[in-house]
Amino acid sequence: MSPHVAMAQRDHVRLKWGQSCSEPVLKRARSTAWTCSCRATVYELYESGGRAFIRRTVQLDRKHEIHETSISSIGEARAIWTGLLSGTAR
After folding, report:
1. Average pLDDT over residues 50-61
2. Which end of the chain is more exposed for a tag (fewer CB within 10 A), N or C?
3. How far apart are CA 43 and CA 60, in angstroms?
4. Is the model's pTM score more than 0.85?
5. Domain count, the chain
6. What are phi and psi for residue 27, nearest 5 degrees?
7. Are 70 and 25 in contact (CB under 8 A)?
8. Residue 80 three-state SS
9. Is position 39 within any domain?
10. CB 45 within 8 A of CB 29
């Protein structure tokens, strides 16, 4: 079973979300962690070649909206991932 994202805490860090990354090494990135798809918004942690980013997919009735964080080191992306799950980042 995949984890659910905790509600955002009052003093949470606001992440900057943008369009899909264009860095060639991350075109082959694999999802290494994800949240439960039972909610409208699903988060995934992608990693490849020592780099990583988080993808947010908002599941709408007829289409999905996809946004991603900027590319960072795997360690930094994993720290952000932990923040998402705990509600200290959104």
Report:
1. 93
2. N
3. 15
4. yes
5. 1
6. -65, -25
7. no
8. helix
9. yes
10. no
Q: Is residue 6 part of a domain?
A: no
Mapped onto helix, strand or coil, the DSSP state of residue 12 is coil
Instruction: Name the token pair of 17.
Output: 């979300």
Assess if residue 19 is contained within a domain. Answer: no
1, pLDDT greater than 90: no
Query: Is 14 exposed, middle or buried (CB count within 10 Å of its CB: 0-12, 13-18, 19+)?
Result: exposed
What is the domain extent for residue 71?
Answer: 24-86
Two structure tokens written together for 55: 């993808």
* Token pair for 72: 């960072």
Residue at 55 is within a domain = yes
What local confidence, expressed as pLDDT, does residue 27 receive?
A: 76
Could you tell me if 55 and 46 are in contact, meaning their C-beta atoms sit under 8 angstroms apart?
Answer: yes
Answer yes or no: is pLDDT of 82 > 70. yes
